[in-house]
Amino acid sequence: EVQLVESGGGLVQPGGSLRLSCVASGFTAISNHMSWVRQAPGKGLECVSLIYSGGGTYYADSVKDRFTISRDNSKNTLYLQMNSLRAEDTAVYYCARRDPSGYERYWGQGTLVTVSS
Amino acid sequence: EIVMTQSPAILSVSPGERATLSCRASQSVSSNLAWYQQTPGQAPRLLIYGASTRATGIPARFSGSGSGTQFTLTISSLQSEDFAVYYCQQYHDWPSYTFGQGTKLEIK
């Protein structure tokens, strides 16, 4: 059974940093495209970052140069390092496994990031 | 960036009736269109991909249609668990796959 479990969210001050983790089970993360999708309170969905099975990465303009996606193959874990956080980064962050065709087939339960002083 | 527009924002339908949700793309996405369902406090769940293919385990009352710029999600006979927010997503414009703003399906 495919499972994705996120952790690492919390309250952080503007300008601060957080690292989100997503532990994958039931499949090998390195063999798949993996994404981070966020949802601000009461708002829609935004894909903020993606790491391809081949290792290339993508970032939305809204997080470029502040967020870094990575993975630890030995732990089958995906990460999102978030620096210089802003109030507008407040959201639930979901880890997802992207099908090779492009849609997000499997989702984690999400972790809440709140940026506030 | 391809902009996805969903309508209506809120749809009120009685249980047992049919619901029709629309999604329009600002430019053609071919059949590279997915639909997701999200209930309060839960992660989105994939319903439809390829504009019309049901994901594993999705009941037959859910159906998708359309291609190019106009898409429809139809729920043929609403059950209580179907009242949720529905999002469309285009995955044509690699890798910036954009979502619509959502349609909230509520009980009439």
Task: Walk me through this protein's architecture.
The complex is a heterodimer of chains A (117) and B (108). Chain A is 0% helix and 53% strand. Chain A has no helices and 11 strands. In chain A, the strands form 2 sheets. In chain A, strands 2, 4, 5, 6, 9, 10 and 11 form a 7-stranded mixed beta sheet that branches. In chain A, strands 1-3-8-7 form a 4-stranded antiparallel beta sheet, with no helix packed on it. In chain A, a hairpin with a 5-residue loop joins strand 9 (91-98) and strand 10. The model of chain A has no long low-confidence stretch (mean pLDDT 95). In chain B, the strands form 2 sheets. In chain B, strands 2-10-9-4-5-6 form a 6-stranded mixed beta sheet, with no helix packed on it. The radius of gyration of chain B is 13 Å and the shape is globular. Chain B is built from no helices and 10 strands. Chain B has strands at residues 4-7, 10-13, 19-25, 33-38, 45-49, 53-54, 62-67, 70-75, 85-90, 103-107. Chains A and B meet through strand 5 and strand 10 of A and strand 5 of B.
Q: Characteristics of this structure?
A:
heterodimer; A: 117 residues; mainly beta; 7-stranded mixed sheet; B: 108 residues; 6-stranded mixed sheet; 0% helix
What's the layout of helices and strands?
The complex is a heterodimer of chains A (117) and B (108).
Chain A: E1 3-7, E2 10-12, E3 18-25, E4 33-39, E5 45-51, E6 57-59, E7 67-72, E8 77-82, E9 91-98, E10 104-107, E11 111-115
Parallel strand pairs in A: 2-11
Antiparallel strand pairs in A: 1-3, 3-8, 4-5, 4-9, 5-6, 7-8, 9-10, 9-11
Chain B: E1 4-7, E2 10-13, E3 19-25, E4 33-38, E5 45-49, E6 53-54, E7 62-67, E8 70-75, E9 85-90, E10 103-107
Parallel strand pairs in B: 2-10
Antiparallel strand pairs in B: 1-3, 3-8, 4-5, 4-9, 5-6, 7-8, 9-10
